[in-house]
Amino acid sequence: MGNKNISMAVIRRLPKYYRYLADLLAKDIQRISSKELSEIIGFTASQIRQDLNNFGGFGQQGYGYNVEALHKEIGKILGLDRNYNAILVGAGNLGQALTNYTGFKNAGFDIKAVFDANPKMIGLKLRDYEIMDSDEMEKYIVDNAVDIAILCIPKNGAQEVADKLVKLGIKGIWNFAPIDLEVPNDVIVESVNLTESLFTLSYLMKEGTEI
Amino acid sequence: MGNKNISMAVIRRLPKYYRYLADLLAKDIQRISSKELSEIIGFTASQIRQDLNNFGGFGQQGYGYNVEALHKEIGKILGLDRNYNAILVGAGNLGQALTNYTGFKNAGFDIKAVFDANPKMIGLKLRDYEIMDSDEMEKYIVDNAVDIAILCIPKNGAQEVADKLVKLGIKGIWNFAPIDLEVPNDVIVESVNLTESLFTLSYLMKEGTEI
Fold first, then answer.
1. ipTM of this model?
2. Whole-angstrom Cα distance, residue B142 to residue B9?
3. Where are the beta strands (DSSP E) in A20-147?
4. What is the reported pLDDT for B110?
5. How far is CA B96 from CA A207, B2, B56, B115, in A?
6. Which residues of A touch B22 (CB under 8 A)?
7. What is the rounded distance in angstroms from the CA atom of residue B81 to the CA atom of residue B160?
8. pLDDT tens sequence across B148-159
């Protein structure tokens, strides 16, 4: 695809557009100007036009945006016009929470198997899953089409698991381990570091103002 | 404090510095040059110097950084030289996972009470907590010193809860509800939107390269 020069800041705004457009659709709103969209979403109208121009515009002078069409297009840009098979590694508290959350499946991200290294966890039922032994992960990936691995494991061992996943051809890792994984360029790691988010909150509270 | 003009990008890198410096301390490494730090952390040495200069530098020509002192200073900058009393609202899967994670308490963020609106949840034990009725939240906040509220509730109702929290003087909200909360300027909201993170992953996978 040809979007290599889109900045990460723009990319991180796209899911937000997608969410607001879904809200508008749910309210049966058919079209919206960039000014109105700006009032709802909190970006300037010029920012919105600039952002969307990166992907070809979509707006029509004097008409604004067709909400349904724009929602669909942004979904396509985000890669949401297909389904993803995921596995989850690490069935601790957070892993269980993610497995139990049905919103991901509704968005096309389907957790197909859950692995844990703790013998006490293996074989336990978690929603529709029987937790599998992490030692079986490699065989599972060989035998099944897996697009994304969700890592909910501690820092220690996370790089080793990532190395295995990469070797088996996994191209997307959603990483909750508090470590910056090293992977080849063609593998995407998207990390969620909750502690870093919490420390950002305390920093901003200390400064006493939102930025 | 005087750091109002620090960009959000710099701020979001601070917890990462803090984490890497803690790793170095754990390995008993006393000092490090910005070049060495750069190799570990993956930012350029000039970026590191620039970032830290925002807060007064800390490095000494020809010596580099004193790891322990820098770790401590960044901790102070992040507001980690004090403790925070938190309450958690919404004891579903994610709320339970956050409550059960001991790392936050170790970092000075102590969840003191857990609330839920679901009658089936109220009174249940969650770690050391008996889940309290959300209707008691306001009284609890009046009677106890609460710094931070962690919102693990659905989108609907989240703004209403935030409004209550603001009214009661809460200055920090760690928000996991998929909604952009509207709060006065002196209240900080730090949001974690897992679905947006997942959509960023799928976007980057579609583009086939890390940015």
1. 0.93
2. 35
3. 31-32, 65-66, 84-89, 109-116, 125-126, 129-130, 132-133
4. 97
5. 30, 37, 40, 11
6. none
7. 32
8. 999 999 999 999
| Cα atoms in the 13 Å half-sphere on the side-chain side of A17 | 31
A202 with B178: Cβ contact below 8 A: no
Domain residue extents for chain B: 8-77, 84-196
Which of A141-150, B56-65, B118-127 holds the top average pLDDT?
A141-150
Alpha-helical (H) ranges within A89-208 are: 93-100, 103-106, 137-143, 158-167, 194-207
- Closest chain A residue to B15, measured at CA: A196
Mean pLDDT along residues A87-98: 96
CATH number of A8-77: 1.10.10.10
CATH topology of domain B84-196: Rossmann fold (3.40.50)
Using DSSP's 3-state secondary structure scheme, residue B36 falls into helix
Question: Is B75 a known ligand-binding residue?
Answer: no
The model's confidence at residue B57, banded by pLDDT at 50, 70 and 90, is: low
Number of A/B CB contacts below 8 angstroms equals 192
Q: Distance between CA A4 and CA B56 in Å, rounded?
A: 36
Average pLDDT (A127-150) is: 96
In whole angstroms, give the CA distance from residue A85 to residue A81. 14
Give the containing element (helix H, strand E) for B114. Answer: strand B109-116
The two tokens of residue B181 are: 């909360």
d(CA A163, CA B135): 48
Per-residue pLDDT at A211: 44
